[in-house]
Amino acid sequence: MADAMTSNAASAPAKTLLLPGDPRPPDLHVDVRTQELQINMGPQHPSTHGVLRVAIWVDGEIVTRAEPDIGYLHRCAEKIGESVSCIQYVPYTDRYDYLAAMNNNLGYCLAVEKVAEVEVPEKAQYVRTVAVELNRIASHLMAVGTYGLDLGAFTPFFYAFREREEILRLLEWICGARLTYNFIRIGGVMRDMPAGWAADVRKFLDVFEERLDEFNDLLTHNHIFVGRTANVGVIPPDMAIRYGLTGPNLRGSGLRYDLRREQPYLLYDRFQFDVPVGTGLKGQVGDCWDRYWVRVLEMRECVRIIRQALDQMPATGEIMAKNVRHLAFKSKPGEGYFGIENPRGELGYYLISDGGANSYRSRIRAPSFCSLSILESMLPGTMLADAVAIIGSIDIVLGEVDR
Amino acid sequence: MTAAEALEQLRKDGQGDGVELFAGPKDAALLVRRERVKAVLRHLRDARAFGCDLLVMVTGTHLTEKKDAKGVLVRAAGFEVIWHLRSVTQHHLLAVKCRLPIDDPRVDSVADLWPAADWHERETWDLVGITFTGHPNLRRILLPEGWEGHPLRKDYVYPKEFGGINLEVDAPWPTP
Prior knowledge:
The structure holds 2 protein chains of 2 kinds. Chain A is an alpha+beta fold. Chain A folds into 2 domains: 2-69, no CATH class; 77-402, Cytochrome-c3 Hydrogenase, chain B. Chain A has 16 helices and 8 strands. In chain A, the strands form 3 sheets. Chain A has a 3-stranded antiparallel sheet. A 3-stranded antiparallel sheet of chain A has the order 6-7-8. Chain B is an alpha+beta fold. Chain B has a single domain (3-140), classed as Beta Polymerase, domain 2, CATH 3.30.460. Chain B is built from 3 helices and 11 strands; from the N terminus they run αββαββββββαβββ. In chain B, the strands form 4 sheets. Chain B has a 5-stranded mixed sheet. In chain B, strands 4-5 form a two-stranded antiparallel sheet. Chain B is globular and about 55 Å long. Chain B starts with a helix and ends in a 10-residue tail after the last strand. Chains A and B meet through helix 2, strand 6, strand 7, strand 8 and helix 13 of A and strand 3 and helix 3 of B.
């Protein structure tokens, strides 16, 4: 651009300085040329939610090509799954999607229980449900809080974290850890709920519903936030399916698809809850705002599920299956796939067992991995500033992408 | 729809050639011959009776030779690729399998049928070493460029160094 200006100045000697609003002389030729530029977003970038590098080619402000580069956090998850026993592997699953570690524990345990034919007692299933849904709220709070942060809204982040802190306190109380729980074990749960815990959860839920309204006032209907997210990054439903998007990303595109409904695991067929979908309230169906809004609505459904689970839960009961001998656990030979509804989509574990203590093969179907692959075709044509809004809206956890 | 029902429907549609039922102790799957993989997967996606529009995952396994106590071969050495498909409209999950010979692990890519397969196939090539012919961009995805070998193979030897970084550990790499 600077070249163009100087060459213009050289060819036509400047007579007078042109002021804004002056009529443009007919011989003045404005020639603004842009050239393609490659820039690196990440791996150390606050808006990539971890160590994700996206190589972006821009022409002016428009993205022409984008190439996500992953693998910075690869920790040989599947190799470890073959090298340690099934029982030993449970704590590793915490580390993949570290924002929803309970859900990861659950996915793996359900897959092992399927292959090894373990019956889980009813009480344990209720405790699992409460823990998993609490964790889902915490995960969604992180997602919507940091999403606001990505778009320049600093305050809502603290409101989201205040609630998340309360959930982490409750989860720490039940299992002793704030992030990596290792609470759900093969055959049941680590321990029963401590006395007074259920009452505290109920107390939290009552407060949380009000606070969610407060959060909506702060961020959801905020004019600037809507301006940044509505009609941005629209994913039509057929495209979402072709790219294997699941969870809130798929539902944001208007498809009512939730594995808790499709093939109820645990005791989800006993609870009443809605599956919120994107409706294009502020813009088009499947835009960034819809995906965000689905997460906010889902938190309310989690509250409903937890209340029902606490109501229906038997006062006493076994919390661990009888036929699981933890020191000498051996799975039956066979193979199986089990998919559960993680906060980020379908988390699946595909296990092949040889009949030994270790899995012969343990494959993780990570929802973020699949969601991230859509970036390559979504970013071209958008403004560079919207790239951040789009990456934030599909809510990835890099620990799970790279495994 | 179970795998047995799917096989029946495939035969009705005239696509049953080269497809058998794999009945494992837990999950059943369609076992498809290598040449027929792409045609069968395309049919599962497009035919109204199946409607398997969501590709859940693609992965591969290295199978080592296994003999029982009497020395009878129960599992031949080879590779296995498995595709899990879901139907969003008809609410079922189908698994499709293909066995590949140990010395020639290659199978048709389905990245043009489902863009979702792109990264899954890259990962399977990266970690297991199965070549997907026709894939537009088959290169490493999780491991760095220039890495040697495919770690999820059972005969994988952990490298001693990479790019001048010493990778030797005191304890031997555990063999499963």
